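fyi for ur records
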Amino acid sequence: MPEANPPFTEFTDVTLRRPVEVQGISMPAGAHGVIMGVYADGQAYEVEFHTPTSC
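which gave:
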């Protein structure tokens, strides 16, 4: 069976298209970040955002 290729790779610049809240932290639409990790063939990503947010 061929390996799945995730739609995004590590170190790709990304911009949120909609607001996201994770573990009580809100990220507004338009927030810019960089993918630092790709998990489960692209089913989950670790993203480091450029601008700090308030909790």
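The CA atoms of residues 30 and 47 lie 14 Å apart. thats all i got for now
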